[in-house]
Write a structure and sequence with these properties.
mainly beta; Elongation Factor Tu (Ef-tu), domain 3; 7-stranded antiparallel beta sheet; 6-stranded antiparallel beta sheet; 25 strands; globular
Length: 282
């Protein structure tokens, strides 16, 4: 387990001198069943299920077998500084031999350092509990490569590809929940559109994306946004130009047929799509 705070400072629980003993909260999150009771009807009608916040508790040991009490004291201070709740959410990273998962989390208190039977001059037991407002563990960012339709086949092998860049791609979300998208759409394009043909949802911006500009879309709940960015880095907020029938859609569980188009010919346009898969547990 590695925690990195909002200032980029990290502490790793697992190796010397911070040995991880117990981890709780990797999977167990309670759920609220949303239902509606109607008069004169037995039972209730199911509406939705909402997951609660996730609590992740780490118990660890600071150990310096050949060190001094000063080493242990400095290590306690370092954990307390990195896991400072006043710094707001940071990133908690879980690693094993098979995969890496990350989650945004904040310590719910200053780390605890019990005294009785838990401390010597070269050893200190401790505990810290993190709260993740968004309970889903996430994969590392996944970037979808542009799809190509082969046009020619040459009688030799090598890192050479010739074909027609496609304006759609199939993305399979095999996570446990729908997940937001981050899209970069490079101009020129008139009224660019990103569409999920699997659900019928789309995002359309009624503006001309100029040569050298790119449209950046983020569909995450806490950062829904659409911007045009030119070659100098100047950012233009075009949120108010979004078509009224648009929706900031997510990748649904299973297959998603994502298409990018516009009101003019954009064959060969470059579109980058990235996302994190979401998981209930690790």
């Amino acid at each position: 387990m590695i925690f990195t705070n909002s200032r980029g400072e990290s502490v790793k629980f697992g190796d010397s001198p911070f040995y991880l003993q117990v981890v709780e909260g990797l999977g167990d999150v309670s759920a609220n069943i949303q239902s509606q009771k109607s008069p004169y009807i037995d039972g209730s009608t199911y509406l939705d299920t909402l997951l609660d916040e996730r609590e992740i508790e780490l118990e660890f040991v600071i150990s310096y077998p050949f060190g001094t009490y000063e080493d242990v004291s400095k290590a306690r201070s370092r954990i307390a500084s990195v896991c400072n709740p006043k710094l707001g959410p940071g990133e908690l990273r879980y690693e094993n031999d098979y995969f890496v998962r990350i989650i945004a989390a904040v310590a719910d208190s200053v780390p605890e350092y019990p005294d009785k039977g838990s401390r010597t001059k070269v050893l200190q037991k401790g505990k810290v509990t993190f709260v993740a407002p968004d309970p889903y563990w996430k994969s590392l960012a996944i970037a979808e490569e542009p799809a190509f339709k082969p046009l020619f086949k040459f009688p030799f092998e090598g890192p050479f590809q010739m074909g027609l860049q496609q304006d759609r791609r199939i993305i399979n979300n095999d996570g446990d929940a729908p997940t937001p998208l981050f899209v970069e759409f490079f101009g020129p394009a008139v009224n660019p559109i990103i569409r999920n043909n699997s659900t019928g949802e789309f995002i359309k911006v009624n503006q001309e994306l100029l040569e050298g500009e790119k449209m950046v879309i983020d569909t995450s709940e806490d950062n829904k946004s659409v911007h045009f960015i030119d070659e100098t880095g100047s950012i233009r907020n075009v949120f108010h130009w979004i078509d009224l029938d648009s929706s900031f859609f997510k990748l649904q569980i299973g297959e998603n047929d994502i298409e990018y188009t516009a009101d003019n010919d954009i064959q060969g346009a470059l579109v980058n799509i990235s996302y994190n898969k979401r998981y209930n547990s690790v």
